[in-house]
Amino acid sequence: MEPLDNPIWIALTTSQSHFAEGQKAARRFPAEVSPLCGAKDANEEGFESVRVLLASGGTAALFLSKRTDLPPGLETVLERPLLQMILEKNAHLPAKSRAHPFMELGDADVPEMLELTAMTKPGPFEKRTREMGTYLGIRTAGKLVAMAGERLKLPGHTEISAVCTHPEHLGHGYAGFLMTILAERIRARGEAPILHVLPENTRATSLYERLGFRKRYLAHLTIVRAAKRDGSQAAPAQN
């Protein structure tokens, strides 16, 4: 399997292993960082390890290669196709049509980052998501109106995520500008930028293609939780 076919697991066992919670067959980010969870393989052992991680409650978001029937002990909360796109190292990155003042976002900006992502819904963003990589933002009249950042990191690749713009500030090219800055920085490290987007989000997909990203892989987003037994969360297995 190519590393990009299982990016969460690869990230949590390599570049972002310092975040990892779990065991040999499944690992996850702390809930306050991200709901993303990776299994070494989408098999009985992998899913059982995911169930153990969820025994005390909560949900986990998995990127699977296809729709998969879950074993007893896990239940599906949400499942959707998920498109992975990549900017190859030799792909042309268009020149920025306009420069905008931007800044790196830090801990003090987290409340506004949470507010903006809650409004625009670019994907899950938690109190500590900012710790996963560099996040850039644009302010207008002191208000955070656009942002984008780095999420998954694995050898040779970094994911661009949380690309969003306040609805009242669309049309200025903020998203494309911030993505270009991030992509240039990622490439300067000798890595290729990747991203994940819902296929029906044609506005975003069109932007990414204009920036030089190509569609690589149609994955399957599956959000799961431990199945309830007698009105309570599933008890942890003995491994």
What's the short version?
By secondary structure, this protein is of the alpha+beta class. It has helices at residues 7-13, 44-53, 110-120, 174-188, 202-210, and strands at residues 21-23, 26-28, 37-39, 59-64, 74-86, 103-104, 135-140, 143-154, 157-165, 192-197, 214-226, 228-229, 232-233.
General description of the model:
- The protein is 22% helix and 33% strand.
- With 239 residues, it is α+β, with helices and mostly antiparallel strands.
- It has two domains: 3-81 and 219-233, Gcn5-related N-acetyltransferase (GNAT) (Aminopeptidase, 3-Layer(aba) Sandwich); 85-216, Gcn5-related N-acetyltransferase (GNAT) (Aminopeptidase).
- The strands form three sheets. An eight-stranded mixed sheet has the order 4-11-5-10-9-8-7-6, sandwiched between helices. The protein has a three-stranded antiparallel sheet with strand order 1-2-3, sandwiched between helices.
- The longest helix is centred in the C-terminal third of the chain and has 15 residues, at 174-188.
- It is globular, with a radius of gyration of 18 Å.
- Residues 231-239 have low confidence and may be disordered.
CATH architecture name of the largest domain: 3-Layer(aba) Sandwich
Strand order of the largest sheet: 4-11-5-10-9-8-7-6
The portion of residues assigned to helices is 10-25%
The tally of beta strands, per DSSP, is 13
* Number of domains as seen in the coordinates: 2
Overall body shape:
globular
The CATH class of the largest domain, by name, is: Alpha Beta
State the order of secondary-structure elements, H for helix, E for strand: HEEEHEEEHEEEHEHEEE
Cα end-to-end separation: 26 Å
Task: Please compute the radius of gyration using only Cα atoms.
Answer: 18 Å
